[in-house]
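hi!! sorry for the late reply, been swamped w classes. u asked for the two structures so here they r. pasted raw, havent cleaned anything up. first the sequence of the first protein and right below it the tokens
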Amino acid sequence: MSKIKKNLWRHVLQLGVIALIVGFIVKVFFGGKPADVEAYCPLGGLESLATFLNSNTLACSMSIVQIMIGIVLAIGVILFSKLFCGYVCPLGTITEWMSVLRKKMKIKYEIPMGSVADKVLRVFKYIILFWIFYMTITTSELFCKNFDPYYAMATGFRGEITAWMTVISMLLLFLGSLFINMFWCKYICPLGALSNIFKFTLTFAGLVVLSLIAGALGLSMPWVWLLGVACVVCYIFEIVYYESKVFPLLRITKDESTCTNCGACSRKCPQQIDVKSMKVVKHVDCTLCGECIASCPEKSLNINRRPGLRWVPVILVIVLFFLALWMSQHWELPTIDERWGNEAKIERLESFERDGMRTVKCFGSSKAFANKMRTVPGVYGVTTYVNRFAVVIHYDPSETTKEKVEESMFTPTKRKLNTPPANVEQLKIVTLEVDKLFDRMDITFLGNIIKEREGFYGIVSEYGCPVKVKLYMDVNKPIDKKELQGIVETRKFEMPVHGGGVKEIICNYELTSVSDQVDTIGRQEFLEYMFPKTSSAFKGNKDKYDTNVATAVYEMDYPGIDKPLIQRQLPYLGSFLSNNPGILAYETALRGDMSVIRITYVKDVLDDDKIWEYLQSPQWTIHFKDGSVKDMDPTLSFKQPGKTIDSAI
């Protein structure tokens, strides 16, 4: 207990982080949404920075906050030591606790420092580090999420994990550290390997300079291969010297005039460093945790020979964290930053920024947006900032105008909010002009706000400055401009999310005008207009049969097929149906109020029972655009069989 009191604030930081993770897990298992546990991940930030340096792109879900925390961690290691490892890292804390447990269980197996086994095992964290960065840089996705024990535990094992990788990493963390002291930190942790590279500061800086010189001479080296060379060189330095020479600047030092060589410092060191035999602790595993200082009965150990610096590491951890947050408010990096066209063209481009692009929310959607803009005449570049849903468009003013580019960016959207009651024969159409409503997700959000109000049935957006919004209302509902303004200018609402729960959405739309012109539309015409018809003909199947072959149409009721979640599954249905002999095409349609699926088939090959047997298949074979084929669980379920009708598609 006295040791804990002497090193109280370190244990407070460690327990605080563990308590937060436990809170995340409890929230998930009580039905909450997994927390954004990547928000302050330094390894993820450094991975994302490497991706940006390599290809001007950021890994999905990463922000400038994580990058700044990663940069500050690197600076902290270089100047002060591995403070994150010793004071904050939850995996380091768990590894340390497992060491205490192994003592309680009297597990005495040790791997002596400097032994052959110790030197061989130390290479694995460098291999894992290189593997993580290579996969992240080549995919622009944070590969470490596949097996990171922290990420798995903090998300309640419901994050983007790969099961077999996660199982192995959890075994290495808990069982490995139970039987071998500090096993995870010494031999497995990729952030530990990266921190050791930063400890060998002059070596790493020299490699960077050599890389830059080689680049200037036309022998450029990708960042990932620079890291590979650094991993090899620093691993060799680690197993040969076991210590850094110049950096970090803060060290544990011993006053030999008062030291009694009792050995308490060596026994209490979590890393099993032989502190008592050292005048200055330069060991590569030292995290400046202060446990040796706290254990010394003679107060012979200090930081840089100054007792007053005893509390500096804890203060530095807090200061560096808030420094990273402050820096993140004053600097940002784009998710993608692309230009196309010749250099002369690029030099005369003009730019404008459009915020509120909620559909541009990750690397994948950024690339999709850039590919769309490549088809727009006069546009020669796109920059995206997904954490604030902003895009910058670079265009040639001699070929197009800002207004034309904005119109090409806009996606007209229509959405049925509610089905009009059967006794409502006519609907009226009211046109609004709404500012700050540009992205198609805005229509989803505004539609969710409106659908809870009585008498509203549909919403359609059309390009304009401001955007034109058509509301389809009960013909008998009065047009109350004050009510419409209150609806449109709702600042936040809770939207149900897939899988349960709700998400708070912040809006800032502004109603600028309500048109005095009112149009009308019939109920059935409205339903047909709003219904998102889908159809696909299977040419490969058609080519197998004579053009005069007798066909029929199998029709099956499928309520709610117009819902976006179901619409996204229809391509899988089409791919599955195309693999079955005798099926020529399918479409979705309306029969009165009922949405239906219609399947065209060859009468001599299939009948109703056989088609229903197909639809009840436990596995679907799906052909993807990249040429791959995969068997997967059905994405749609069918409850009631249909029947053949007379009409054909």
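now the second protein. again sequence first, tokens right under
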Amino acid sequence: MKNILIGPFKRDYESKDIISSYEVLGDYAASPDVLTFNQMVLIDDESISTSFNDILYNLPFSWRPDYIIFWGVDKEIIPDELEESEYPVIGVVLNWDMAFDAVSKNMSRFDWVFTDKKGAQIFKDAGFSNVSSIQLRGFSPNLTRKIGRPFKEKNYDITFIGDLSSELHGERNKLLYRILKLSDKYKINIATEVYGNDYVNLINSSKIVFNHCNKQEANSRCFEVPACGSLLFVEEENLEIRDYFNDKEHCIFYNNDNLEELLKYYLENPEESEKIANQGYEKVQEYSYENMFSYLVSEIEKLDFNELRKNRTFREMHRLEKHKAIAKQALQSVVPGKFYIVERELQGALDIYSSEPELLNNLAVIYANAYFTLMNKEDKKLLHSSIKFLNDAIGFSPSYAVARFNLGCIYYLDGEYKKAEDILNSCIMCISTAPEESIELKGFYYIPPNISLHDDFKMEWEKATYTYFNNENDLSYGYCDLLMQRAFEILGDISAKNFDLELAEEMYKNSIQVKDNIGYIKFKLGKVLEMAGNYQEAYDYYNEMIKDKPLYLETWVNLVKILDKVGKMDDYEATNLLALEISKLSPLYDQFKKELSRNLTKIL
């Protein structure tokens, strides 16, 4: 094997974050031909190092890489001057759907990029030629293994392990809700925040493990479940699963129409289920992390880097665009202290391009974020700087809708509701009169409570970016719809806080009319209608919210209250009992579980 330098990795003893080097490399982690480098350290002023040359300097004197693999372009910060390296540079993108904008601005720092099947096609459709798909996930035989009892003696009939976020996993949560309704017949376990040996034990104790992949990729669960000897259920529209497993031979492919039918069949036919699970166990041994890495190396060695060097054009990019691209990529990362890089790049660019509105907007966003995430807000220097930068940006470009939107959000968070209303209404006016001009300048946007967190607004923003990447007109309208939707929502929030229920209702309905599939506006509208005594319409919107986000438990609690108020006690009982079952899914629901449990006394 040639010498390979790969990273950044960190040893995560609790198995919570990005997989450690061993779980990517397998036994190659001990190979003298494969060396790793660490995640960037940015939280200690005395030890900050951002240069790739520092990584090379710390390598053994006689060891030099034949090529470099940067693992996690979407999650880690690319070291300075990596694109200047004399060695071939390969990037690996894991969650392109959360970071397409950032990754696309930095693709030219790499000779070649690997990602999953859907991501590779989307990047190609956007015009990038230096990308292909590869297996990105596998399992670690040392951790993920059979330790359970025979299939028929397992404790749980159906298990799901994963995040229950209503914003990030809307479609999956709808399927989980359907599974939950089978709890009168089967023992169901829906778990979150389970890692390491506890995770392995739970899979081993489950007959069926339900999986639904966000990007139609074969995620880690696709390999870990059969490696533990349990029966994997995975969506049939998955683009990669057939590369590894056959339906009804190694696992079960379900669709929206047959999920319950298939669950029932395989739970009632344990011998057939155990046979498929055992065949899946035998087959999955091919897909360990070590084998995954070996295949990645074989694919890299097929590349002609003399020819591919032409893809690394980042050094030729305009200096301003370089600064913005580096700042955007750092902002998207999960690296502690990342704002050091973001501010460095933006401030460095602003020192040269002092009247550039997008730089002013971007600096304003990170200063506002720093201010609102601080525990002590007595010192308002950051807030005042943020507001000044945004006003300057709008002064240089009066139609700059993103800057107006950000300023409105910041005034809202600071309790300056009248100023927030004025600026958000001006944002809506800009978008309504000249949508393409209003979004000509883009940049960072501020979505409370923290710009590092993901929600469905951010996911939709990324989706608009890759869907309309080569169509500036459609892209502008996609962004404008998102800004207007959220601006109307915040205006509704302000009106609700001011107890202007009629105006709040109007603003929420405007928001839904622009875009009805993100956020919690239907829930908020239901609350406003309930406060106004319009119980039937409130009931209707709560039910709409449950269809969209069935595991958002506060909707259920409010729906139960409505049924109590109108005296529909039969529906009240059934709805409360179903909500109580949902409340048992996660400790996050404990406050609601107590309230729903108390309701049982009224039923009894």
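hope this helps!! also noticed smth abt the second:
The radius of gyration is 26 Å.
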